[in-house]
Amino acid sequence: MVQITAAVSGVLLAFSLAIGVRFLANRMATPYTVLLVAVGFLLTVLPLHSYLEFSLEPLFTHDVILFVFLPGIVFYGAAEIDHERFRRNLLITGLMVIVGLPVAVFAIGWIGSVVFEVPLLIVLLFASMAYPIDPVAVLSLFDETGVPDRLAVLVEGESLLDDGLAIVVFSAILELVRQAGPGELSGSALFSASRLAAIVGDFLLVSAGGIFVGLGIGYAAYRLELVTTDDANHFMISLVAAYGSFYLAEHVLHVSGILATVASGLILGIFARRHALSEKNLDMLVQTWGYMVFFLETLLFVAIGLQVPSTEIVTNLSIIFGTLALLVGSRAGVIYGLLGLLNQWIDDPVPISYQHVIIWGGCTV
Predict the structure, then answer these.
(1) How far apart are CA 276 and CA 293, in angstroms?
(2) In this structure, what are the phi and psi dihedrals at residue 326, rounded to the nearest 5 degrees?
(3) CB within 8 A of 281, min separation 6: which ones?
(4) What is 91-149 written as a DSSP string?
(5) Residues 22-79 pLDDT 10s
(6) CA torsion, points 86, 89, 93, 94, in degrees to nearest 10?
(7) Which CATH architecture describes the domain 69-298+320-364?
(8) What region does 146 belong to: left with phi over 0, alpha with psi -120 to 50, or beta?
(9) What is the pTM assigned to this prediction?
């Protein structure tokens, strides 16, 4: 009972802070989420920090973030993305993820292990977490700031796909770390032919499995949307599709829950918009999901700010800046290299100014 009342009071306090931050963000023309993280960070030096951290702690476990916060935010992003532009730019975003992600992770791992003298597998594990664009941050920032449509689709599309594949890569490397014997963390475990084949096989199975689960649930949800005219039912169907696809894929079938949620959001967003929803139904659904995602993002970004270890940041600034330089440099090499080559073959090249933004988008982690 004490934990429940503490959590409720913590949520109310977080939203009370968010009201003030929202007013301030509008006055300063500053992105709301950026200001929210900054306020959360400033709270770490105030007495209020301890109470907020204690009261919100039950809400921000790994499982709660994975099963409650992430599916809703990612589903909304996939359903709301400009689907026609996403289709036209799928080759570009696909290459940035399927080719760019593994290349960047291995580049960061190899350079980082040499520079920081840390075992290769450990740096690879870090790279698979740190390199991908954070879809929560990207979607919320782009919603507030407004960017050209094509740039938004490129970055949002990469962030949605990147995150799903990165979790698969992270899980595979983590399993290698667990299986590695003494001395194998330096890389001999990774470059075993049998283990490398197992990683590739797992990667394909988990990724494809998640996509197929999402496509199936998204299509089933679309068929249900066709036979209902009730606003509440439209929302409930989309809610079950978002969270059901993630739960079934991640918890039951042990394939990629994020990719399942992205796939279901894309299918429902494309077909339901065209064939199942009236303008009134669509407006209600978009508005309801928008408020729900705003609620989730507010709590999540307050928590991110509260979790920033301020004293550790000050004492480890050189390592932090060195790591940031490694991440940005690796991402720059991948994006400039891939898009520079691809621009020679496609009718609508990606402008260099867009490439700069895509690179710095990777710093939203």
Answers:
(1) 23
(2) -65, -45
(3) 229, 231, 234
(4) HHHHHHHHTHHHHHHHHHHHHHHHHS---HHHHHHHHHHHSS--HHHHHHHHHHH---H
(5) 888 778 766 777 777 777 677 666 666 666 666 666 667 778 888 888 899 889 988 8
(6) 100
(7) Up-down Bundle (1.20)
(8) left
(9) 0.82
Q: Please give the structure tokens belonging to residue 319.
A: 């390592």
- Record the tokens describing residue 81, joined without a space: 């993305």
Helix, strand, or coil (residue 365): coil
For residues 242 and 265, the answer to whether their CB atoms sit within 8 Å is yes
Residues in the chain: 365
Locate the domains of the chain by residue range: 69-298+320-364
CA 88 to chain centre: 22
34's tokens:
């950026």
Largest CA distance in the chain: 63
pLDDT in tens, 86-100: 888 888 888 888 888
List helix spans (H) across the chain. Answer: 2-28, 32-43, 48-56, 62-64, 70-80, 83-88, 90-98, 100-115, 120-130, 135-145, 149-179, 193-226, 231-247, 257-271, 279-307, 310-315, 317-342, 352-361
